[in-house]
């Protein structure tokens, strides 16, 4: 797939680091996070893994400003500017609006902010994700992979320095998933990415930092990674070894159980 | 086969009607047979068309007004929290008043012309439209709202671009109910006090023991009601092609 251009993200200038400090968040009377701190490096892919219910998605929502940590916890950018307005969000469901065409979905953000809709940009971005011929089609007529491509184009249209992704590829078949991972790395280059995933291979392929979340309240274990550039090859022995090690970490952390004291 | 179903049902209904009228040995002033009724329609065609057009106008205006107020009310309730707290109980309580009981008052206020019937139809249509649409507005997919939030959308733009379109299928079900009750509002209004319309025509025919004419008016009313429902249904399907249950999606591929 050829790329049109690689201009760095514009809205809000260079991607900042993200600091989460002393975050505390309870759900149903239990602490998901207590005194939780995490530093997310700028311009990198940070992947989060862990058992269901450990709070990965909640952590993303915390960064996205969809949840508020109890004081004194805070989520801040390294440059001191607010994170609000510098984040794009991609979920497991593509969240495409069924009444809009692919094109309309890509330019949804502009419409929601009351800005002029740039159809030429939306066309270009859909072209970039390989859907240049399906711009007028509604989501229902597209396959799961195509729908996630539209969601990726919509994320690109937002042009934010920080992109949060919550298992965006998990509903796709293996080959489509590999293609979309490659496409995401290409198109999102230069941005700060936080990716929540259940797939160890995905984390090893894409992560420049891979963290396993375990226990309740959650703590973080950093996984070792091969010394190569992303997207790493899925059939590379070093990648497969790292995946195996990550699997063992996940199994060990899962054995602890979520409800251990 | 599917398009045959309605004609078959109608033919069966007419045959049953004729059978009851003939075999039950009922006098025509209790139950006139279908043939008599059709002949009556033919004989009084011009008067029926005149009265029917009045009733149709009342229904159409009532539908328009009731839908406009119902939709506006639902949007207000969805957007303003105080409206939800204060207006919603009032709305629910208002349904304790039987709308039919209001008909004499409406005639008193709006006169014998079509205004009181339009008001009656609008009142009866308002509630199903408002509740269905409001229900739809409350059930917006949470993920869409999260997405809109991260996109930095203002609340009213979220309402306009996300919540309202997402609630259109719910509004459509409200409208289908509205189409079914619109004739009730118009005819009840006409019964209470009027000088035109199918309801008025039926009362006149009843007073003169022209029972076949009463049935003729009833039949015309039923046809209008059915036509209104199916026209609205077809219009809604066209307007909302993305709603899964109203249009098979996989036609193209």
Explain what this protein looks like in three dimensions:
The complex is a heterodimer of chains A (261) and B (253). Chain A has 261 residues and is of the alpha/beta class. Chain A has two domains: 18-86 and 160-256, 3-Layer(aba) Sandwich (Rossmann fold); 97-158. Helix content of chain A is 33%, strand content 21%. In chain A, the strands form two sheets. A six-stranded mixed β-sheet of chain A has the order 5-6-7-3-8-9, sandwiched between helices. In chain A, β8 and β9 (219-223) form a beta hairpin. In chain A, α4 packs across α5 (144-158), α5 packs parallel to α6 (174-187) and α7 (200-206) crosses α8. The radius of gyration of chain A is 18 Å and the shape is globular. Residues 1-9 of chain A have low confidence and may be disordered. Chain B is mostly helical. Chain B has a domain at 39-140 and 169-241: Orthogonal Bundle (MetI-like fold). Chain B has helices spanning 2-23, 34-43, 45-79, 81-94, 99-110, 114-138, 142-150, 155-192, 198-207, 211-239. The model of chain B is unreliable at 246-253 (pLDDT under 50). Classes of the chains: A alpha/beta (261), B mainly alpha (253). At the A-B interface, β5 and α3 of A face α7 and α8 of B.
What's the total number of strands of chain B? Answer: 0
Number of helices of chain A: 8
Give the topology string of chain A: H per helix, E per strand: EEEHEEHHHHEHEHEEH
Q: Report strand % of chain B.
A: under 5%
Task: Give the strand order, joined by hyphens, for the main sheet of chain A.
Answer: 5-6-7-3-8-9
Question: Terminal Cα separation of chain A, in Å?
Answer: 50 Å
CATH fourth-tier homologous superfamily of the largest domain in chain A: P-loop containing nucleotide triphosphate hydrolases
Radius of gyration of chain A: 18 Å
CATH topology title of the domain at 39-140 and 169-241 in chain B: MetI-like fold
Radius of gyration of chain B: 22 Å
Helix content of chain B: over 70%
CATH architecture of the largest domain in chain A: 3-Layer(aba) Sandwich
Query: Class by helix and strand content of chain B?
Result: mainly alpha
Q: Treating each run of at least 4 consecutive H or I residues as one helix, how many helices of chain B? A: 10
**Greatest interface and its residue counts?**
A-B, 26 and 28 residues
């Amino acid at each position: 797939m050829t790329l049109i251009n690689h201009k760095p993200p514009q809205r809000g200038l260079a991607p900042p680091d993200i600091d989460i400090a002393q975050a505390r968040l309870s759900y149903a009377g239990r602490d998901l996070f207590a005194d939780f701190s995490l530093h997310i490096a700028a311009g990198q892919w940070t992947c989060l893994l862990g058992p269901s219910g450990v709070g990965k998605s909640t952590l993303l929502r915390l960064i996205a400003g969809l949840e508020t940590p109890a004081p004194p916890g805070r989520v801040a950018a390294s440059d001191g500017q607010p994170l609000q307005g510098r984040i794009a969000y991609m979920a497991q469901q593509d969240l495409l609006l069924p009444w809009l065409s692919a094109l309309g979905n890509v330019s949804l953000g502009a419409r929601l902010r009351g800005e002029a809709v740039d159809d030429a940009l939306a066309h270009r971005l859909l072209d970039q994700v390989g859907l240049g011929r399906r711009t007028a089609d509604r989501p229902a007529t597209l396959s799961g992979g195509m729908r996630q491509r539209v969601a990726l184009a919509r994320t690109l249209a937002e042009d934010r320095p920080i992109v949060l992704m919550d298992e965006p590829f998990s509903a796709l078949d293996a080959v489509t998933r590999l293609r979309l991972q490659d496409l995401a790395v290409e198109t999102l280059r230069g941005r700060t990415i936080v990716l929540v995933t259940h797939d160890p291979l995905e984390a090893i392929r894409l992560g420049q930092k891979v963290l396993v979340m375990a226990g309740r309240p959650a703590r973080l274990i950093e996984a070792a990674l091969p010394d190569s550039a992303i997207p790493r090859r899925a059939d590379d022995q070093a990648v497969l070894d790292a995946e195996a090690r990550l699997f063992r970490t996940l199994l060990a952390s899962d054995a602890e159980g979520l409800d251990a004291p | 086969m599917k398009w045959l179903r309605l004609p078959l049902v109608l033919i069966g209904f007419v045959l049953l009607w004729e059978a009851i009228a003939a075999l039950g040995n009922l006098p025509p002033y209790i139950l006139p047979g279908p043939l008599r009724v059709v002949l009556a329609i033919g004989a009084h065609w011009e008067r029926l068309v005149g009265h029917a057009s009045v009733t149709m106008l009342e229904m159409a205006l009532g539908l328009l007004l009731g839908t406009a107020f119902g939709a506006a009310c639902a949007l207000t309730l969805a957007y303003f929290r105080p409206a939800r707290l204060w207006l919603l109980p009032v709305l629910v309580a208002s349904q304790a008043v039987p709308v039919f009981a209001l008909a004499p008052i409406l005639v008193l206020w709006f006169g014998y012309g079509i205004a009181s019937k339009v008001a009656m139809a609008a009142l009866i249509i308002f509630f199903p439209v408002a509740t269905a649409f409001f229900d739809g507005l409350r059930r917006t997919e949470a993920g869409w709202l999260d997405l809109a939030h991260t996109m930095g959308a203002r609340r009213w733009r979220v309402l306009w671009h996300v919540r309202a379109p997402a609630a259109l299928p719910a509004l459509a079900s409200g409208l289908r109910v509205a189409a079914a009750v619109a004739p009730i509002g118009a005819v009840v209004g006409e019964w209470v006090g009027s000088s035109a319309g199918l309801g008025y025509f039926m009362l006149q025919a009843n007073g003169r023991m022209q029972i076949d004419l009463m049935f003729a008016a009833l039949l015309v009313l039923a046809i209008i009601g059915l036509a209104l429902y199916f026209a609205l249904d077809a219009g809604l399907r066209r307007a909302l092609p993305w709603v899964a249950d109203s249009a098979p999606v996989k036609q193209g591929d």
